[in-house]
């Protein structure tokens, strides 16, 4: 029974710890907000003898603030939901939304049954509106009952449980105390707001303190100066509103955290152990955390996870691979990320983040911004630490550099907001509040704060939470390293906390971050089961005959495993152990422990394998002996080669000077061959120089014979022979160069003369070519200018035609709109008439009256055309052109007689009059030709002397509808232009081979020279003033030649053809 009670108490510890240390987060409804290490101790008989629980880092900030949709610790909601009415009255409990410390979420976890048991008055508005929260293992109503029963089983009396409930309720009521500025305090202090007086009274009663003393402790702080007597002067410092709020929250955190420590100590006292042979420990630490806002709690939790991940990497990955490497198994290396640099970043003794935080907390005026800057300065350039602006999350980029830092953990980068790091790292209360709780009438509270500190000093002492947690974590890691460790990886299937939903990417990310994929890869290539050779030999030698049992341990293991015909991939021999693939050692053990018949077969196979292995060893030994013999023979051959090389070296050393001398002298023959070739080029004294070359050949042969015949000749003598031969060669070479230079000088003079003549001819050719090039370039530019001019004229013509077209369209649109408006106006009049008749009939039937308003009057002003004055007549292009012509015309010669025109031309000096006569002449000539064409015989064809090509006449006919404005008469601006177009006579239209060319030279607007070239006819050359009746009477604008692409040519091209066909040079009239 005692052992059963002990096991029950160990099991009861879990719901108690979960009630006081677990809370709902957005990612887990029952998230552990503290770490715990539960030890279950056993004696030598494997019987439970006791246990012990160590806890780490309770998240105290959750007591005062929670994120949206997150709850405070479960015990607060259990108390509100499941406490009996009598207990509720003692604790003055209300519903969750009555308390500010529960503002994150005010809904209960209940089932449909227990939800009905909770009175409506005890439910929050949010719970009534949205319903209860659902979770398979959470029920605030039932969990309170289980909590109460578990506390009783731990040995707590009703009074003991009531003291605990009072502190829990006191924390809730403490959070409802608010503050406001005190206008009567000249030092800017604050006071408890009138609406919070009831909460102050209830809190004081629950924790057993005087309300006035509690009010004073919350709104002021007692300090003691150093001077003024033995103990100094006591100073009461008023607090501002935000300072009072911080003091209230600090008191709430201190009350709850010390209560949690007390509960853990009660559990440990209820499950003591005196003697323990071994124990099983279960470590439960909050997993890696990352939120939009991450503070000191997340920093500590993630630091703990970094340490555990390092422990996991070392034990599972690094040590296992080191064993494989040491045993020589040749298992592929599995790479994993080592996070030691992150751990050093946090816990380094010199400049770790914890150390920098503690140093900052000890300053007179600590500042989180200064702390953050120190962290960045100390670790500047470290890969694992960066500024918030480098975060992938946009919400973090708004933080300034001195407001946070980003740490790249093994599971991902987390951005920490440091504005509360200093406050959360200090686990001490200021003197006034600590003195208040120490003087409490509540016995439990007295025990919780029994250890006196620096209350008399009147200042806030510093107790580092980070250093304490680091020390606890180091002790925990020492425990883990001393014991065998197994790891359980919890993988969250989805982020919505719903069943039957699997998010593959989320699960894969968790597996990768936790290193599980590397472990699986190691398991794929590794051998998890391993046994030393000696142990395997002891286990199974009793199953085999004595002659086999006497074998060495390694040979025994090899014989057994190979004789069982197991797959070679299922096991591997190391240096000291044999390794098995998963499940293969069990298979091997089953075979070895099989029935005697199978054992006999195994023994036979072992003997067979031994014989075969020994024979193979003998064969390998023979092969090794043969290899040794071959190696000795090879070494003897190598000795001969070495002797040959040495003898050759000695011979070369002895004869090398003579050999080099012979090589140098023989190399001279190459120079003699070149000298002989040069001597053959000479025209004078050729025989003399060839004779000298023969003498040099004889000197070389003589020196060679001396070196060959005399083995004792010295290197100096060889050099003297070489120098003598070279001296003779140099003398003859210099003489040959002189002769050759003289010959070259003479040849060079002749060559230079020829080159000069060739250069002169080439210069003249280049000048001629340059002249032609410039002329062609000038012609090309003139043609380009003519083409540009043609395009400009064509564009102007097209713009004028477009303007005329738009004007005509506007006129047509105006007439059309006018017709539409007129039609619409008539329809409206008709509609008015019908409406009036209908109204008249209805009035006669109902004895009513009809409104005889005047009919709709047409708004004439709105119908004026957008073109301007409606009375304006839009004239055609021809009329406007004629008006322009009349306006510009100075002389009207249309009524002059031919005699008057002749006299004016012969006698007048007025250039404008002469030009007007010219225009009048061509006008009458056109009239004449038009009359002639109109009255000719229709059956007759066009005469041979057609005045212009058909295309020119057709262009003039098309352009006759537009009267071209007359140009101003100015003889000084007369322009000469030249044109060429294809020309076919009317009788030759069916024969394309008779196509000719029609040339025209325009002086101003009229033809000055005209020429027709035909394949089978003589050229026709016409000149103005002589052949006017046969020439084109049209003006340049009327012909449309300026609009024909490629029709205009240059003056020299026209003159070349004109003079080639017998035309006389044209004399232009001087200005």
TrEMBL record:
<feature type="region of interest" description="Actin-binding">
    <location>
        <begin position="473"/>
        <end position="495"/>
    </location>
</feature>
<keyword id="KW-0067">ATP-binding</keyword>
<dbReference type="GO" id="GO:0005886">
    <property type="term" value="C:plasma membrane"/>
</dbReference>
<feature type="domain" description="Myosin motor">
    <location>
        <begin position="1"/>
        <end position="593"/>
    </location>
</feature>
<keyword id="KW-0505">Motor protein</keyword>
<comment type="similarity">
    <text>Belongs to the TRAFAC class myosin-kinesin ATPase superfamily. Myosin family.</text>
</comment>
<feature type="compositionally biased region" description="Basic and acidic residues">
    <location>
        <begin position="763"/>
        <end position="839"/>
    </location>
</feature>
<keyword id="KW-0175">Coiled coil</keyword>
<dbReference type="GO" id="GO:0009888">
    <property type="term" value="P:tissue development"/>
</dbReference>
<feature type="coiled-coil region">
    <location>
        <begin position="665"/>
        <end position="692"/>
    </location>
</feature>
<dbReference type="InterPro" id="IPR036961">
    <property type="entry name" value="Kinesin_motor_dom_sf"/>
</dbReference>
<dbReference type="GO" id="GO:0005524">
    <property type="term" value="F:ATP binding"/>
</dbReference>
<dbReference type="Pfam" id="PF00063">
    <property type="entry name" value="Myosin_head"/>
</dbReference>
<keyword id="KW-0518">Myosin</keyword>
<dbReference type="GO" id="GO:0051015">
    <property type="term" value="F:actin filament binding"/>
</dbReference>
<dbReference type="GO" id="GO:0048731">
    <property type="term" value="P:system development"/>
</dbReference>
<dbReference type="Pfam" id="PF16521">
    <property type="entry name" value="Myosin-VI_CBD"/>
</dbReference>
<dbReference type="GO" id="GO:0009653">
    <property type="term" value="P:anatomical structure morphogenesis"/>
</dbReference>
<protein>
    <submittedName>
        <fullName>Putative myosin class v heavy chain</fullName>
    </submittedName>
</protein>
<dbReference type="GO" id="GO:0030048">
    <property type="term" value="P:actin filament-based movement"/>
</dbReference>
<keyword id="KW-0547">Nucleotide-binding</keyword>
<dbReference type="InterPro" id="IPR001609">
    <property type="entry name" value="Myosin_head_motor_dom-like"/>
</dbReference>
<dbReference type="GO" id="GO:0030139">
    <property type="term" value="C:endocytic vesicle"/>
</dbReference>
<dbReference type="InterPro" id="IPR027417">
    <property type="entry name" value="P-loop_NTPase"/>
</dbReference>
<keyword id="KW-0009">Actin-binding</keyword>
<dbReference type="GO" id="GO:0000146">
    <property type="term" value="F:microfilament motor activity"/>
</dbReference>
<dbReference type="Pfam" id="PF21521">
    <property type="entry name" value="MYO6_lever"/>
</dbReference>
<feature type="region of interest" description="Disordered">
    <location>
        <begin position="763"/>
        <end position="856"/>
    </location>
</feature>
<dbReference type="GO" id="GO:0007015">
    <property type="term" value="P:actin filament organization"/>
</dbReference>
<dbReference type="GO" id="GO:0048513">
    <property type="term" value="P:animal organ development"/>
</dbReference>
<dbReference type="InterPro" id="IPR032412">
    <property type="entry name" value="Myosin-VI_CBD"/>
</dbReference>
<dbReference type="GO" id="GO:0016459">
    <property type="term" value="C:myosin complex"/>
</dbReference>
<dbReference type="InterPro" id="IPR000048">
    <property type="entry name" value="IQ_motif_EF-hand-BS"/>
</dbReference>
<dbReference type="InterPro" id="IPR049016">
    <property type="entry name" value="MYO6_lever"/>
</dbReference>
């Amino acid at each position: 029974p005692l052992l059963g009670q002990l096991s029950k108490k160990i099991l009861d510890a879990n719901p108690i710890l979960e009630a006081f240390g677990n809370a709902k987060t957005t990612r887990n409804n029952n998230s552990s907000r503290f770490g715990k290490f539960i030890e279950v101790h056993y004696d030598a008989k494997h019987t439970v003898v006791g246990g012990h629980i160590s806890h780490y880092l309770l998240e105290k900030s959750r007591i005062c603030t929670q994120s949206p949709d997150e709850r405070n610790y479960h015990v607060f909601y259990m108390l509100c939901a499941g406490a009996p009415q009598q207990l509720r009255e003692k604790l003055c409990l209300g519903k969750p939304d009555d308390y500010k410390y529960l503002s994150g979420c005010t809904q209960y976890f209940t089932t449909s049954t227990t939800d009905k048991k909770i009175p409506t008055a005890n439910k929050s508005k949010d719970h009534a509106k949205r319903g209860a929260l659902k979770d398979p293992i959470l029920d605030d109503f039932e969990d309170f009952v289980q909590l109460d029963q578990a506390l009783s089983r731990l040995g707590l009396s009703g009074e003991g449980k009531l003291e605990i409930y009072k502190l829990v309720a006191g924390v809730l009521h403490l959070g409802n105390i608010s503050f406001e500025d005190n206008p009567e305090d000249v030092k800017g202090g604050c006071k408890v707001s009138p609406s919070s007086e009831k909460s102050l009274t209830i809190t004081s009663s629950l924790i057993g303190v005087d309300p006035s003393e509690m009010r004073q402790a919350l709104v002021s702080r007692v300090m003691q100066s150093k001077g003024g007597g033995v103990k100094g002067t006591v100073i009461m410092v008023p607090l501002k509103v935000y300072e009072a709020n911080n003091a209230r929250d600090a008191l709430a955190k201190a009350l709850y955290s010390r209560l949690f420590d007390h509960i853990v100590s009660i559990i440990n006292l209820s499950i003591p152990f005196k003697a323990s042979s071994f124990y099983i420990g279960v470590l439960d630490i909050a997993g890696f955390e990352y939120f939009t806002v991450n503070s000191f709690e997340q920093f500590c939790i993630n630091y703990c996870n970094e340490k555990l991940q390092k422990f996991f990497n070392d034990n599972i990955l690094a040590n296992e691979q080191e064993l494989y490497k040491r045993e020589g198994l040749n298992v592929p290396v599995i790479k994993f990320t080592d996070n030691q640099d992150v751990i050093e970043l946090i816990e380094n003794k010199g400049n770790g983040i914890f150390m920098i935080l503690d140093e900052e907390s000890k300053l007179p005026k600590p500042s989180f911004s200064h702390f953050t800057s120190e962290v960045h300065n100390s670790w500047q350039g470290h890969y694992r630490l960066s500024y918030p602006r480098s975060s992938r999350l946009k919400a973090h980029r708004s933080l300034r550099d001195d407001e946070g830092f980003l740490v790249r953990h093994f599971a991902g980068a987390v951005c920490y907001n440091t504005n509360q790091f200093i406050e959360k790292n200090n686990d001490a209360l200021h003197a006034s509040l600590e003195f208040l709780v120490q003087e409490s009438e509540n016995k439990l509270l007295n025990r919780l704060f029994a250890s006196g500190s620096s209350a008399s000093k009147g200042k806030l002492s510093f107790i580092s939470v980070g250093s304490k947690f680091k020390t606890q974590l180091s002790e925990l890691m020492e425990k883990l390293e001393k014991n065998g460790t197994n790891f359980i990886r919890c993988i969250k299937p989805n982020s919505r906390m719903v069943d039957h939903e699997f998010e593959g990417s989320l699960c894969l990310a968790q597996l990768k971050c936790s290193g599980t994929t590397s472990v699986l890869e190691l398991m794929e290539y590794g051998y998890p089961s391993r046994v030393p050779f000696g142990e395997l030999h002891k286990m199974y030698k009793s199953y085999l005959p004595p002659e086999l049992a006497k074998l060495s341990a390694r040979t025994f293991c090899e014989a057994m495993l190979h004789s069982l015909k197991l797959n070679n991939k299922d096991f591997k021999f190391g240096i000291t152990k044999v390794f098995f693939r998963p499940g293969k050692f069990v298979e091997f053990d089953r075979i070895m422990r099989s029935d005697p018949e199978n054992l006999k077969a195994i023994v036979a196979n072992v003997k067979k394998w031994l014989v075969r292995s020994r024979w193979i060893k003998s064969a390998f030994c023979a092969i090794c002996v043969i290899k040794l013999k071959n190696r000795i023979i090879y070494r003897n051959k190598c000795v001969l080669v070495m002797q040959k090389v040495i003898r050759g070296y000695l011979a070369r050393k002895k004869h090398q000077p003579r050999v080099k001398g012979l090589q140098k002298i023989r190399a001279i023959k190459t120079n003699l061959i070149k000298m002989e070739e040069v001597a053959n080029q000479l025209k004078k004294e050729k025989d003399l120089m060839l004779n000298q070359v023969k003498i040099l050949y004889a000197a070389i042969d003589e020196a060679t014979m001396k070196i060959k015949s005399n083995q004792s000749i010295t290197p100096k003598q060889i050099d003297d022979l070489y120098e003598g031969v070279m001296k003779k060669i140099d003398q003859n070479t210099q003489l040959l160069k002189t002769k050759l230079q003289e010959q070259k000088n003479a040849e060079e003079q002749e060559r230079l003369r020829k080159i000069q003549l060739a250069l002169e001819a080439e210069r003249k050719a280049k000048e001629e070519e340059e002249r032609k090039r410039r002329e062609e370039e000038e012609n090309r530019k003139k043609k380009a200018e003519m083409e540009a001019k043609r395009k400009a004229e064509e564009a102007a013509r097209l713009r004028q035609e477009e303007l005329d077209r738009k004007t005509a369209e506007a006129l047509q649109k105006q007439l059309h709109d006018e017709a539409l408006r007129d039609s619409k106006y008539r329809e409206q009049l008709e509609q008015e008439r019908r409406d009036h008749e209908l109204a008249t009939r209805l009035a006669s039937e109902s004895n009513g009256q009809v409104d005889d308003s005047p009919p709709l009057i047409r708004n004439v002003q709105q119908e004026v055309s957008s073109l301007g004055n409606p009375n304006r007549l839009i004239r055609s292009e021809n009329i406007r052109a004629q008006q322009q012509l009349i306006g510009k015309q100075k002389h009207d010669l249309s009524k002059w007689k031919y005699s008057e025109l002749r006299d004016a031309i012969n006698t007048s000096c007025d250039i404008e009059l002469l030009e007007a006569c010219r225009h009048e002449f061509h006008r009458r000539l056109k009239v004449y030709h038009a009359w002639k064409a109109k009255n000719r015989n229709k059956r007759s064809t066009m005469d041979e002397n057609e005045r212009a090509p058909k295309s020119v006449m057709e262009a003039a006919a098309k352009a006759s509808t537009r009267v071209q404005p007359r140009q101003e008469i100015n003889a000084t601006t007369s322009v000469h232009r030249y044109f060429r177009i294809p020309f076919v006579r009317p009788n030759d239209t069916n024969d394309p081979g008779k196509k000719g060319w029609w040339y025209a030279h325009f002086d101003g607007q009229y033809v000055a020279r005209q020429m027709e070239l035909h394949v089978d006819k003589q050229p026709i050359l016409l000149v103005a003033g002589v052949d006017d009746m046969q020439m084109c009477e049209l003006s340049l604008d009327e012909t449309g030649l300026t609009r024909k692409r490629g029709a205009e040519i240059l003056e020299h091209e026209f003159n070349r053809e004109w003079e080639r066909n017998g035309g006389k040079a044209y004399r232009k009239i001087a200005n």
